[in-house]
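During the reporting period, we have paired protein sequences with backbone structure tokens. One record among many follows, to show the layout:
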Amino acid sequence: SDEIVFEMADLIISKLPEKLDIDNALPEMFEPDEKGRINSLSTVLSQEIVRVNKLLSAILSSLINIKKAIKGLAVMSDQLEAIFNCMVLNIVPETWADAAYPSLKPLGSWVKDLELRLQFISRWMDYGQPKSYWLSGFFFPQGF
């Protein structure tokens, strides 16, 4: 199971960006209007980016540490062992779920769903406000 988890960790790492950089978003989305107000949807976007980056950091750091532990370069802590066991059982690790949006999906589907959420936010950053919004794709849809 060490090899399987190592390969899973590599695969997940390869699919996820290190972080989403709000500085790469279209500048006009954050320009104030004539009254000095920034569009409220831009505020929603910036809040989502903060939440996504927190989740990406939790996922990537734990996967890097799991790979080190499997290679014998780091100690397999209780937290890393719990993540390892969740990956073997195709369950979203609790530390990731705590930093994430509510979901009951198994790990494989959850990672695919995360990729789609990242695509949605990235397109919003790159091309401006979408014509329609994926409400369930938000961490905090009430903020919308």
